[in-house]
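User: Let's play a game. I give you a shape written as tokens, and you guess the letters that built it. Ready? Here's round one.
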């Protein structure tokens, strides 16, 4: 990829977005050049901040002509390096944060059209303001953006009820590598006029086009919730509870999160304002939540469900949140678990999924193999059991050397990812591929699927300017 004179390129970028929209000062660029875990760092020719879809398209046309790589970035909350430039200093970071308009909220059609830079929490609030609900919910919802959510097909805690980001989008507006603007925004629930182009760009991590706006699905606003923390003997009991919850609660089941005892202990040890919800310790726990647009009914439904689970011996104990404060406390146990792992030393993390029925066997085998290979290592698997997504994290042995443990990352990765393949799972459930798993993808993805992915990439981005080095 050849480049023309940098100063000339920067002048032409400034002509598109204005001088203030082209950041070249190293200090001002610093926050855009690394991701939250500080695992990926890069350099950039500049950070460019467009304010409209047309400006994005013009920037891509210019960079495509000049052969300059473009790294799209939303809220910079991704965990696989997909939003980080390389170390060449020759790429530009295309920040979408200033595309932050909520273009329309249509309560009649239950849709909302928003630009890519809209923060997820702001989209949720805009929906709630008209009595509707946008259900995508992530730990980073106060800073992640809709464009990034769609580019990575973000999941979160409500996938069991509403699906991932892909399932929540009806149409997209996308800037293509050559500067064309695909105007695919639509409120239609049924449209069989050819290929579903929106789904092609969702999950593509900015390698096929830059999402500039989206029309999203809205739902009735939940008016009642019921949340419980359930103690269990093992993941098989959790799977039995999930089956029972689906049968008894149906569409009211909106969250089902699996947590091991060691995770609870980490949170109790390191996070303030948290208490153990149950009187005794249990090897495993599930955080379960029901919700309904009706003003009542879910509390009784959850109580009946838990009573049946206790009577059948599926559950060992349970506590139902009686107040909003108690509900927040239960969710804090789950949501702060990743942060609570940090004081325990090094942690080797995996974002994987396996078929629901395989979760107990996968966890049992993974725990046995990991601890046999690295004696004293502390597996801390948790996550969205309702949709098969487990964050299989492994904390270092107590008092061990952090660097020495992390140096074994590839060995432990091979064990975990090998088991994921054995159980017909995915090595990337919701965080994406980015730079972190690009080489791994070549090993685990069907060869024909990879060929098709490369062909699509070549057709839409023949010069390879869009997020170079990511995914493929």
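Assistant: Ready! My guess for every position:
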């Amino acid at each position: 990829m050849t480049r023309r004179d940098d100063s000339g390129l920067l002048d032409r970028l400034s002509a598109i977005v204005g001088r203030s929209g082209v950041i070249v000062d190293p200090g001002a660029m610093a926050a855009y050049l690394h991701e939250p875990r500080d695992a990926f760092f890069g350099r950039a020719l500049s950070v460019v901040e467009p304010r409209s879809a047309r400006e994005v398209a013009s920037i891509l046309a210019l960079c495509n002509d000049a052969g300059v790589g473009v790294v799209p970035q939303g809220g910079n909350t991704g965990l696989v390096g997909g939003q980080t430039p390389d170390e060449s200093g020759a790429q530009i970071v295309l920040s979408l944060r200033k595309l932050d308009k909520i273009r329309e909220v249509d309560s009649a059609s239950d849709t909302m059209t928003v630009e890519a830079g809209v923060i997820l929490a702001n989209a949720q609030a805009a929906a709630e303001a008209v009595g509707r609900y946008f259900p995508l919910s992530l730990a980073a919802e106060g800073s992640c953006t809709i464009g990034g959510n769609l580019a990575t097909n973000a999941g979160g805690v409500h996938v069991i009820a509403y699906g991932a980001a892909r399932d929540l989008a009806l149409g997209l507006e996308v800037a293509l590598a050559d500067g064309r603007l695909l105007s695919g925004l639509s409120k239609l629930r049924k449209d069989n006029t050819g290929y579903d182009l929106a789904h092609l760009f969702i999950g593509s991590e900015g390698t096929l086009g830059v999402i500039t706006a989206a029309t999203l699905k809205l739902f009735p606003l939940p008016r009642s919730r019921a949340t419980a923390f359930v103690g269990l003997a093992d993941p098989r009991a959790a799977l039995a509870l999930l089956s029972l919850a689906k049968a008894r609660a149906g569409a009211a089941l909106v969250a089902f999160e699996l947590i091991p005892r060691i995770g609870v202990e980490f949170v109790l040890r390191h996070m303030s304002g948290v208490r153990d919800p149950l009187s005794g310790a249990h090897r495993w726990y599930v955080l379960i939540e029901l919700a309904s647009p009706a003003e009542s009914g879910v509390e009784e439904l959850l109580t009946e469900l838990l009573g049946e689970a206790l009577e059948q011996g599926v559950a060992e104990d349970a506590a139902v949140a009686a107040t909003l404060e108690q509900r927040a406390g239960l969710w804090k146990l789950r949501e702060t678990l990743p942060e609570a792992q940090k004081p325990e030393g090094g942690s080797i993390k995996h974002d994987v999924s396996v078929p629901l029925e395989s979760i107990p066997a996968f966890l049992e085998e993974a725990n046995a193999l990991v601890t046999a290979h690295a004696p004293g290592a502390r597996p801390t698997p948790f996550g969205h059991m309702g949709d098969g997504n487990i964050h299989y994290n492994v904390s270092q042995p107590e008092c061990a050397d952090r660097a020495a443990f992390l140096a074994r990352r590839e060995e432990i990765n091979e064990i975990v990812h090998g088991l994921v393949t054995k159980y017909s799972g995915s090595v990337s459930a919701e965080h994406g591929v980015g730079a972190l798993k690009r080489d791994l993808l070549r090993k685990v993805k069907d060869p024909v699927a990879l060929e098709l992915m490369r062909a699509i990439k070549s057709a839409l981005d023949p010069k390879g300017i869009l997020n170079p080095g990511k995914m493929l």
